[in-house]
Amino acid sequence: MILVVAQSLSKTYATDSVEVKAVQGVSFEITAGSFLSFVGPSGSGKTTLLNLIGCLDKPTSGSLTVAGVDVARLDRAQAAAFRGENIGFVFQSFNLMPVLTAFENIEYPLVMVQNKLPGERRTRVLELLQAVGMSDQKNKFPDQLSGGQKQRIAIARALVTQPKLVLADEPTANLDHETAYTIIRLMKKMRNDLNTTFIFSTHDTRIIGEAEIICTLEDGKLVRCEEAHG
Ligand SMILES: Nc1ncnc2c1ncn2[C@@H]1O[C@H](COP(=O)(O)OP(=O)(O)OP(=O)(O)O)[C@@H](O)[C@H]1O
Ligand SMILES: [Mg+2]
């Protein structure tokens, strides 16, 4: 099943006097269950492209379909609802809420977007805590956790609503190499267990090797997508 289809997708940012062509006429298809990385130098358009796929931003031209929905046509409220149902996000800077415990951070998307009973929510959060190896840390606050532990919680939070797709923009950029490997392997394990599609971006040549498909951007253009050993 094809999950994401982009055709001649472009995003131009108009700042005061200049136009920045952040993504230029990009076309690709991403199969459900992929473990794919966008790579490329700083400014090549990785974040812009992930933001388009994640319905956080709108294309200037071209078409983009995610899970069969023409996402460029969604208004703000529709895009928010679509994200809540279909997409989980993992960020470079973790973006956990400091006043919530690890448990509460993972639970938060369920409280926001789905009307699950508290008992159901608790069961689901405990499952995820176990899956990311953080059961015994569930009552800690983010500032009591290491970077790798925070990212485990963020991965659990991204998966708690059972999204079709997880988008991770440089998820290992703030982690040491060993922890970065652990986090990428954890994401791959979650893909293997749940068949969730993972699309991430990275600069880090040491973890690029973990991707199964590597798509290279240069100056906003997709220069190639190739299968890797993963
Ligand atoms: N909101 C914005 N307004 C104006 N220009 C922007 C905006 N966001 C990104 N750009 C520009 O678009 C281009 C692509 O940026 P983008 O953040 O997508 O690159 P990137 O590949 O993620 O880079 P990095 O590896 O440094 O994170 C850059 O030239 C950037 O300056
Ligand atoms: Mg970026």
Give a verbal description of the structure.
Helix 3 packs across helix 4. The chain is of the alpha/beta class. The chain has one domain (2-227): P-loop containing nucleotide triphosphate hydrolases (Rossmann fold, 3-Layer(aba) Sandwich). It is built from 7 helices and 10 strands. The chain is globular and about 50 Å long. 35% of the residues lie in helices and 29% in strands. A 6-stranded mixed beta sheet has the order 6-7-8-3-9-10, sandwiched between helices. The chain has a 4-stranded antiparallel beta sheet with strand order 2-1-4-5, covered by helices on one side. The two termini are 20 Å apart. The mean pLDDT is 95. It binds adenosine-5'-triphosphate and magnesium ion (MG). Residues 13, 15, 20, 22, 40, 42-48, 203 line the site of adenosine-5'-triphosphate.
Question: Summary?
Answer:
The protein is α/β, with parallel strands linked by helices and 230 residues long.
Outline the fold blueprint:
Blueprint: E1 2-14, E2 19-31, E3 35-39, H1 46-53, E4 61-66, E5 69-70, H2 76-86, E6 87-91, H3 102-113, H4 118-131, H5 147-159, E7 165-169, H6 177-194, E8 197-201, H7 205-208, E9 213-218, E10 221-227
Parallel strand pairs: 3-8, 3-9, 6-7, 7-8
Antiparallel strand pairs: 1-2, 1-4, 4-5, 9-10
Residues 46-47, 169 line the site of magnesium ion.
